[in-house]
Amino acid sequence: MQRGLGKFMMNLRMESKQLENQGKPPLSSPDVVQTADFTFADFSPLGHVGDSGPLLLARQKGNRQNRYVVKHALTDCACNEYVYTKLAQAMGYTMPEAVLFQLSPTEKRRYFKTEYIIGIRYLDLKIKSPSYAQIREMAINWKEYFSFGGMYAMFGEGDSFETPLAEDNKIYRIDTTDAFPISNFQLDFAGINRDFGEGNLQTIWKKELLSSNLSNALSKSGCDSCFEICQEKDKSCIPFFFGAFCTHSGNKR
Questions:
Q1: CA-to-CA separations, 165 to 126, 138, 170, 197, 225, in angstroms, rounded
Q2: What is the pLDDT tens value at each position of the chain, 253 positions in all?
Q3: Which residues contact 82 (CB under 8 A, 6 or more apart)?
Q4: Cα–Cα distance, 218 to 234 (Å, whole number)
Q5: Contact between 166 and 126 (Cβ < 8 Å)
């Protein structure tokens, strides 16, 4: 999307949200932090920009060791990765902490391409892309490798499957924007409470999203292929892979 159009739509969404929040108490949540409390710097390795757009590294002003890798260029990054993180944590799986950055009233810096900004806890890594043999040998939560595989199959993901090994000897699932069939395009418009053409954009897109048929997400062929890959790595994967499909935590079975 062109920079000028993206900025225009961002302003429309922010105006709509401000109108919606009139009369409500200020947002207060441990999952929401203020941009004014952090410094930001480019974090795109060697200038590489991936599917999530340019990344930033945020450091808390009062505690420089409190760091987050920040995604801000596309609306679906914050939406999908935040929900995925909370869901996986509720299932008992190991995820880096996720916070949402709220643009502070005094924010003038031009880092942010959208108002949807997520920060994923910066991990001190032992191995960025470990093999399964390395995970099996060193990761104290190695079983979750297959649980993450089950979730990958469940959501019909097609992006890279990243499970870096951190210095605490745990693997973490990262980069989960592709985990839901909700697109950046849909979210761009769903937040705009304005009448355009045949109706109100927000009403139209909320209806579209709420009526979406997600039955294809659990594709048998997709699940089978993910399961086969896991079985090739380790026959003991079965309870951990299918534990992700249960209502309780798969890694505690």
A1: 6, 8, 6, 50, 24
A2: 556 888 899 999 999 999 999 989 988 899 999 999 999 999 976 555 678 889 999 999 999 999 999 999 999 999 999 999 999 999 999 999 999 999 999 999 999 999 999 999 999 999 999 999 999 999 999 999 999 999 999 888 888 999 999 999 999 999 999 988 888 888 999 999 999 887 999 999 988 888 877 666 566 667 888 999 999 999 999 999 999 988 554 444 4
A3: 31, 98, 100, 118
A4: 23
A5: yes
C-beta of residue 56 within 8 angstroms of C-beta of residue 42: yes
Determine the Cα–Cα distance for residues 233 and 135; give it in Å rounded to an integer: 11
205 C-beta neighbours (distance < 10 Å), count? 18
Which long-range contacts link 239-245 to residues 24+ away (Cβ below 8 Å)? 240/143, 240/144, 240/145, 240/146, 240/147, 240/150, 241/146, 241/147, 241/149, 241/150, 241/153, 242/150, 243/147, 243/150, 244/91, 244/147, 244/148, 244/149, 244/150, 244/151, 244/154, 245/150, 245/154
Find the distance separating the first CA and the last CA of the chain, reported in whole Å: 45
Full-model pTM: 0.89
Calpha distance 205→13 (Å, rounded): 13
The single residue listed with the structure tokens 């060791």 is: 65
CA dihedral of 170, 250, 122, 179, whole degrees rounded to 10: 140
